[in-house]
Amino acid sequence: METIGGRELKYFEVKDLNNSKLFSIMKIQIYGAGIAGSYLYHLLSQNGFDVSIYDIRSKPDCRCAWGFSYSETKRLYKEIGLNVDNYLLSKPKYVIANGKFWFKNKEIVILDKKELMDDLWDFDLKDVKGDIVVDSTGNSRAILPKIEYDAIYTTVQFIEKHNMDENIYIYMVKTGYAWAFPLGDNRWHIGAGELNGERALELIKNLRKTYGINEVESECNCVGKIRLLPPSKCRPIVWNKVYGVGESIGCVSGAGEGNAPSLRCAKLFYDCLINDKLEDYEKRVLEEFKWIEIEHEFVWAVQNNKKLRALKLLPKIISIESKRSIEQSLETLKNLMKSFI
Length: 341
Hints:
Low-confidence stretches: 1-24
Strand content: 15-25%
Distance between the termini: 59 Å
Number of strands: 19
Mean pLDDT: 90
CATH class of the largest domain: Alpha Beta
C-alpha cells in the first residue's frame, strides 16, 4: 500500500496540475468555506481530487476583509480560472494614517468580496469522513486543538454612504486601528479591530472625528473576530490527520491582512499534497510566512513600548509592505510610530 504524509492511501487517479504525473490520493474533507477553504476546494476539485467541504453557514457573509494584495491575489485565483478584475470595486490612490501621514498605494485593491464568495460557493456543503482533514475555520479553529495563549481581536463594521475621495483612511493606536475603505458609488466599509468591541467603537468614533466622517444610517453592520498571532504561535499546524490552512494557523499579517496570505497557504498545502510532501507542510508554512513573524514582532514591540526594537525592525517592515501594499519611507514611519508610542 502506498503512503502520503506517512499514511496509507485509498486509490483515486489524479493528474498533477503542473506535470500530469499520475498518483494516488485519499479523500479530503475541508471544514470552513471562507477565503482559504473555498479556494482550496476549487483547486482540488478542478484537478480530480475527491474533496468535500462543510461550513456552519448556509451562505457566505461579507464580514470584513474587502482589501486584497492585488498581484498575489490575481495570480492565485487565476489557478482556478477566476479573474479578480471582474470583482474590482476600487484601487485607492493613497492610504492616509491618523489624518496626516500619506502613503501612495501600490498593491491594495478593494474587491467585491460578497460577489466573489457567492460565485465560489457553487458547491454542496457536505460533512463526510475524510482521510485528510483541513481546518480552514478561521479564528474559531474548530478542528485543530485550541491555542493556549490565543489573541483574538474584535472587529466592528458598517457599510455606509459618504461622498469622499476614494482613499483608504486609517486611525491607528498601539492596540488596533479603524478604517474606511471605498467600495465605489459612494459606499464605504467602515470598521475597526481592537481588543474588544467597546474599544473598537471608540476607534471608529476617533476615525470619524479625524476625517469628518459623519455617523449616518448604515446599510448593514456586524461584529466579527480575527486571530492576530503568527504561525509559529499557532502550533500545532498539523495534528494527526488534520492540517490547518489560513487564519486558523495565523496567516494574517501584523496589519491584519489575511486574504492573500490565506490563499497562499492553501496553495502551499496543495503543492505539498501533489508532491507527496505533506510531512514538510508545517516547515514550509513557517518558512513561507517569516514575513508575518517579523510584522507581529514589530507590533509586539510597539504595543509593549520597546521603541528600540521597533525601530530596528522598521527597515524590514518597509521592505515587506513596499512589495505588498504601499510606498513608504523610514522617516514617515518613524513619525507615525512616534505619534502613538
